[in-house]
Here is the input.
Amino acid sequence: MGSIGTLALKDLRLLGRDKFGLFWVLAFPLLFAIFFGSIFSGGGSGSKIKLAVVDQDSTSQSRAYIEEMQESDALAVTFLTLEEAEKRVRQGKLTAYVVLEPGFGDSPFSFFSGEVPLRVGIDPSRRAAAAYLRGILTQLSFKQVEKLISDREASQRELDRVLAQIDTSSGLPARQRQLLKDFFGSLSNLVQEEDTSFSFKGNVAEGIKMEAVTRESDQTTPRSSFEIFFPSAIMWALLGCAATFGISIVKERTGGTYLRLRLAPISRAQILTGKGLACFISCVVVALLLMLIGRLIFGVRIDNFGLLLLAIVACGCCFVGIMMAISVLGKTEEAVGGAGWAILLIMAMLGGGMVPIMVMPSWLQKIGVVSPIKWGILSLEGAIWRGFALSEMLLPVGVLVGVGALFFTIGVLRFRCSEF
Amino acid sequence: MAAIKVNNLRKQFNSLVAVDGISFRVEAGEVFGLLGPNGAGKTTTINMLVGVLQPDGGEIEINGASDPTVPEVRRGIGNAPQAISLYDHLSAEENLAFFGRLYGLKGRTLAQRVAWALTFAGLTERKSDRTVTYSGGMQRRLNLACALIHDPPILLLDEPTVGVDPQSRNLIFEDIEELKGQGRTIIFTTHYMEEAQRLCDRVAIIDSGRILALDTVEKLIEQYGGTSVIEADLVAPPDDPDRLPGHLEGTHLRLETDRPLEELAHLSESGVRFHRLRVDRADLETVFLNLTGRRLRD
Here is the structure.
């Protein structure tokens, strides 16, 4: 093991024996994820959203839709009257109620016009749960349409009805009317196709309009509130790492061990690289550990593990730089600890580390771009549930690495100026 | 052969002149003391010798090399800083092994050096305890042992006994005498004149960044210490007071002399009997007082 490895191992060993540091690096982020994940999961029944269903349509389609809801792992469904459902939501005993209004079964294609006869009642403070529920309901709607289309006769009847509705509709602009007629006309021709080798269901499900909407609802919506709060928790863990190692640099200087390191036959660059390596390893290990806990205990699903690793490595690089910059904010542990945490908390506030960025007002979301926390969360979410491609990951990852490099350079330059 | 040569070394921090053109040389195997009050420039001199401070002027030569930042030169130097520079939450064994690895030790060599250093510091039985649980004296001894882990021929000890109890101080003295016996070259800074007097072959008295005097302890006292003072209460007044040297008042005799032992022997031979006797000999404290007009621990 070289000098850098020796230095890093020493710092990791010291971190392992520092109960206070470990609390901020691991225990607090985990508590954060569990606490907020549970609050926003709605009703406290694991990660399921507890809701009541009011079936005012009572058609075979509405019943089929409710069956899909009951089969969903994300929903805990009960049947109530509308009054009782409203009351329970108001009392906080249920997260939401869903009303399948009359006409639901007659209009399986109505989602194209955005007028689905389906109403959701939810506490406005549970915005994350609302977004999550909306995604699930949309997904179930698409499943229903898929089923309908797979029944050739039923879908032909429905398409004829929709074409007639388009012809008689008075409010549609001429161009939009023609586009809809062309689309549903083409769909009708497809349904009439006699080629027995043609797999109707599969092709429509993968067709342009269906595919695009399905993908939107399936991959760009968090499947549970834990998928929102575990990335935030990882950011808290990395903040803890940056603060702990930043303070440890000052501690080395005030405690005299830095002088002893400088007397050894190693360079200043090796000393700082060793410290950075220890911080980086800590960041990566705690991030992976939190994700493992999230995956095994709280059902956080990871869309792309390779991209998750990339995001974690980028976050690690960023927080090594932040650690270095924090270490030169003062000459004592108290000064660096105070100033460092103040800056880190502001970063967390702006970047969505405290409350999810999706529930922030738009002006605050715009300001949030200056915080590396925002980019860290985005990169992690990109790999966990946003369904980012590698090309989409490049921006957040590039920002994180760039910020890390900038802060590290500033930190090293200031460190050299104030060495002794 | 000189192990360390310093010529016209200077260092200034803003308007404060910390080291103002000091020069000295330390022979191989010699224990050299830098004696001066706090703020005299001792630690700054040490830090320049080991290359963590860049001098504003002057030359340093250590074992023939002019740049102390070169790793090979650093491997030949052991430094015990004034502050206890240990990792509190590592054990003595872990601290020693860590610093040993930084000096390139590994495997059996490292294990042997760690074992030797633990024995030297008297910490073998507590080698696995975290250093935060050690007494001040134990931490001081470990601080010294960490400077020796790579077996350097040159040792720089910056106030190695500050803040320890008399028993631990005595143990450290014995440690340093053992190191001296091994033929190591030692530079030793202190503001305790009795330490310098006991341990050092030569002493440089330093104040305000300048060397005021440099020689063996005996020669410094001889040159700058002034006379010794004998004060005695006699059992009975002498028959012939005029024959006694010094000043006699009743039975109280006060005598200033360069040769106190000879004078006492002479008085005894003359039949003078003492009821109470006190001899104030000149020491490095007196030397410092005479050179600067103030006491070492002011």
